[in-house]
Amino acid sequence: EYWTYWAVCEYILAWQDYDYLLEEKRIYPTNEKRRVIDTLFKIYEYYKDVMGTGKHGLARLLACDWCRVLFHPYYRDMSDEDRANGPKIAESTFTTVIGIYGTQLFAKVLRETGNERADEIQAFSDRLKNALAATWNGKWLPRAWISDDYGFVGDENEFISVNCIFLNW
Question: How many CB atoms lie within 10 A of CB 93?
Answer without folding.
Answer: 28
